[in-house]
Design goal:
The protein is 24% helix and 26% strand. By secondary structure, it is an alpha/beta fold. The chain folds into two domains: 154 residues, HAD superfamily/HAD-like (Rossmann fold); 91 residues, Hypothetical Protein, Haloacid Dehalogenase-like Hydrolase, Chain: A, domain 2 (2-Layer Sandwich), CATH 3.30.1240. The protein is globular and about 55 Å long.
């Protein structure tokens, strides 16, 4: 297996980074064993690539700390290779405005624009929205000033409670209290296919690690898949292998199981 696999795709939240560790710094939430696994993969000629729902500016320092320069962000709406963003897709300003009008009827949530300038807070009725770069509360007309990848809705019980009527868009749960709204035609899977083309590889040379609903599509883009022990049941049912929880050396143990390290 080690000779065959050349790239390993990793989700962040709940996969590389623990939900149990209270820190706004991603690196503090990555188990030591997972960092050891990433280093060992590189030593064995396997390139680790981040695939996350978070927008690029949020994860740049994180991937740099992990010595990575190739990653997929914003659920596949941004691809960075060799430290350069090589592909992106943005929402039209009129679509963003229409979404904000729809979402005003949803109570007890925070709404964030994930943009090229970082996270832009539109309004906050949730105790969970603490990480944002700019606030335009009370001045939503400024939303058109930003180049937006997707919208993030933060709160409790989002699945089934938050939806959009805008054509060509979808709502996807990406973390226990986070739901993203993004173009229907873009996903972690479509981004992985683009990334494999850039790397000159095919799906038989790739493995993916995930834990959440937005990783289901990603699992369909590679031949080998690993669901974390803390993953949702639907992901475990489709995975090649179910490893331990992220906090119980799940990444390291899976890499050992497949003979990658």
């Amino acid at each position: 297996m080690k000779k065959k696999i050349r790239v390993a795709f990793f989700d962040i939240d709940g996969t590389l980074a623990s939900h149990k560790v209270e820190s706004s710094n991603f690196l503090d939430r990555v188990p030591v064993s997972a960092r050891r696994a990433l280093s060992a993969l590189r030593e064995n000629g396997i390139q680790p690539v981040i695939v996350t729902g978070r927008e690029p500016s949020v994860i740049r320092s994180f991937v740099a700390d992990l010595e990575m320069d190739t990653y997929i962000a914003a659920n596949g709406l941004s691809l960075t290779h060799g430290g350069v963003e090589v592909w992106r897709q943005l929402l039209a300003p009129e679509v963003v405005a229409a979404l904000l009008r729809e979402l005003r009827d949803v109570r007890d949530v925070a709404v964030v624009l994930e943009s090229t300038a970082g996270n832009v807070l539109c309004w906050n009725e949730s105790p969970y929205a603490v990480d944002f770069d700019v606030s335009i509360e009370g001045a939503l007309g400024r939303a058109c000033e930003y180049s937006v990848y997707q919208l993030a809705i933060i709160g409790d019980g989002l699945k089934g409670r938050v939806r959009t009527m805008q054509e060509g868009l979808k709502a996807r749960v990406v973390a226990p209290r986070v739901l993203d709204i993004l173009p229907d035609a873009v996903s972690k899977a479509s981004a992985i296919e683009r990334m494999l083309d850039l790397l000159g590889l095919d799906r038989s040379q790739a493995i993916a690690f995930g834990d959440e609903e937005n990783d289901l599509e990603m699992f369909g883009a590679v031949d080998y898949t690993v669901a974390m022990g803390n993953a949702i049941d639907a992901l475990k049912q489709t995975a090649t292998y179910v490893t331990d929880n992220v906090d119980e050396d799940g990444i390291y143990n899976a890499c050992r199981y497949f003979g990658l390290i």
